[in-house]
Amino acid sequence: MNIDAEYMARALEMAREAREQGEVPVGAVLVGPGGEKLAASGNAPIASRDATAHAEIRALREAGRAVGNYRLPGTTMYVTLEPCPMCAGALLQARVARLVFGAPDPRTGACGSVIDLLRDNRWNHRIEVVGSVLEEECGALLREFFAARR
């Protein structure tokens, strides 16, 4: 298993924990430039009553507190679902170097599926994007969750 798949497997663990809490099962792991895990989180907007409590935002907040800065250069964000516009914007503001996501999001994906905020040449920061890492596992978790709710 390559390093991207290993960290995505950890993000899947966070997504499963979110599911157990009744949240949409999305998980995120932020890794530092040296490969050290800085933060890991799952979705929590329902429990926190906070629309911004997506897994990516929560991981960025945790990492920012850990390193003492909102800018996180050289880091990689692993997330089980393609980020929405809010989360893609937060990744840009945090100066994350690389994004690795699992399942594409054909409804609100902002990293290539619906829109592509991260590849817009007008930004002063660029994020390398790698999609479809453990796509089947990430997508299956979401499909199962929503099938059970219908």
Structure description:
The chain is of the alpha/beta class. Helix content is 40%, strand content 17%. It is built from 5 helices and 5 strands; from the N terminus they run αββααβαββα. The protein has helices spanning 3-20, 45-48, 55-67, 85-94, 135-149; strands spanning 27-31, 37-42, 76-81, 98-103, 128-130. It has a 5-stranded mixed β-sheet with strand order 2-1-3-4-5. A hairpin with a 5-residue loop joins β1 (27-31) and β2 (37-42). The termini are far apart. The mean pLDDT is 97.
Low-confidence stretches: none
Mean pLDDT: 97
* Helical coverage, percent range: 40-55%
Write the H/E string, N to C: HEEHHEHEEH
Reported for the largest beta sheet, the result is: 5 strands, mixed
Q: Termini separation (Å)?
A: 35 Å
- As laid out across the biggest beta sheet, the strand order is 2-1-3-4-5
Basic shape: globular
Strand portion: 15-25%
Class inferred from helices and paired strands? alpha/beta
How many beta-strand segments? 5
Radius of gyration, in Å, reads 14 Å
Give the helix tally: 5
